[in-house]
Amino acid sequence: MNPAVWLIGAGPGDPELLTLKAVKALARADVVLVDDLVDPQVLQYCPQARIVRVGKRGGCRSTPQDFIQRLMLRYARQGLRVARLKGGDPCIFGRGGEEAQWLTDRGVACEIVNGITAGLAAASASGIPLTQRGLAQGVTLITAHSQDGSTPDWSGLARSGTTLVVYMGVAKVNDMSSQLLAAGMAADTPVAMIERASLPGQRLCPSTLADMARDAEAFQLRSPAVLVIGQVAACRVLGIADAPAEAAPPLRRLA
Amino acid sequence: MNPAVWLIGAGPGDPELLTLKAVKALARADVVLVDDLVDPQVLQYCPQARIVRVGKRGGCRSTPQDFIQRLMLRYARQGLRVARLKGGDPCIFGRGGEEAQWLTDRGVACEIVNGITAGLAAASASGIPLTQRGLAQGVTLITAHSQDGSTPDWSGLARSGTTLVVYMGVAKVNDMSSQLLAAGMAADTPVAMIERASLPGQRLCPSTLADMARDAEAFQLRSPAVLVIGQVAACRVLGIADAPAEAAPPLRRLA
């Protein structure tokens, strides 16, 4: 049975980071519902499809989740092949699971097509090896604020020995820094704050746990950005120099 | 400047989970060094290249890391374009960072091409939403045993509120279960053990923290497998039934 809805991860921005599976699904889609964080270049792979934008634009509120789900259901019941295109991976802070569950409960067959999640792409493009032996036991992907209002257990995370990769954290840099310091993480723990991961104009602001709020402000760090906290954040295994705050050099690309 | 060496993530197995960037790099490579965990189908994208297998085969010891690095250096100095193909993502337990650092230190330009890491692919293919709101604060990727002999801080991880995704954990199921129980994680915490993620014959063994060792044995769980520990492990957002232990149904695929 073919799925009626593909929940597709568009990756971090660079259209070359789409998977072959995503490109094939996009080429077959009749209608594509697109989130804001998806780079417009990705849409080159579905010129035949009707494009429906469902993200925030120009300060407007984002399309209500319930409306998006009902729209997908309506299209699927019309017999259309629906692609739901999300930034990064659909199930890493992308609500892909909720949408799949809602549609599955209503008899609509879904398939989840993985994407490269922004945290991993940001680190690789910056030469930061997230799980480097001797420096990290693994890697934890978190958001600084969850949509149910709860906050992560920073104390457990500080003790875990894993590299912390924080999504959607720009507005919460100060809180995060305070909580992790209070949990006993060293003030000089390296931090790398990466803006526009994988896209031209990617910038990296190096810092430490104690200074990250001040440094982010001086750097004028803007969303979307990924924050890497842990010993590996000081590594630059590709020998790429950090971006100066006043410049935005193009990303080194596969020519 | 073009890189002399691409460190490429081949993804979890399904060749359609390669990125466009990986496919382009493979098509340009003169020589491809391949790890064992890479599915042979992936090599269809580099028919022009010389293939050098550097993984474990038939119980032999794996090729020493130092030898692999010197081989890449030699090829790069001969002016050849070298692709180093690793399972999953090159920097998630893949030593991609170490290889990039070693080559960069010797003046060889490298580029890291992300791949879909096995933990995320295993979960998505099973309908397990790793960061589902209300159930998880995020997700932690770890190995059960690191190569420097250290073990994760299970107590910190148990408290973190994140879903745990354990790589290379089949031989350590018993240890892990004991440590997490001792750290206070609930005995009935859902567990999903996923064998051959994304490949035909993928199997899922559902269990709990207390019973995972016994269940893995009854299921005859074999490496490579990914273990998901946390409330989300009980979710099946795609409505896919778990594989019975005696059968190995084909993965539901994009036709």
UniProtKB/TrEMBL annotation, chains A, B:
A single MF term (Gene Ontology): uroporphyrin-III C-methyltransferase activity
| Broad enzyme group | transferase
Which InterPro entries does its entry note?
4pyrrol_Mease, 4pyrrol_Methylase_sf, 4pyrrole_Mease_sub1, 4pyrrole_Mease_sub2, CobA/CysG_C, Siro_Cobalamin_biosynth, Uropor_MeTrfase_CS
Q: According to its UniProt record, which protein family does this protein belong to? A: Belongs to the precorrin methyltransferase family.
Enzyme Commission numbers on file: 2.1.1.107
Task: Respond yes or no to whether keyword Signal is given for this record.
Answer: no
Biological or metabolic pathway of the protein? Porphyrin-containing compound metabolism; siroheme biosynthesis; precorrin-2 from uroporphyrinogen III: step 1/1
Keywords, A to Z, come to: Methyltransferase, Porphyrin biosynthesis, S-adenosyl-L-methionine, Transferase
Which Gene Ontology terms describe the biological processes this protein takes part in? methylation
- Please list the residue ranges annotated as the Tetrapyrrole methylase domain: 5-212
UniProt key word Methyltransferase: yes
Q: What is this protein called?
A: uroporphyrinogen-III C-methyltransferase
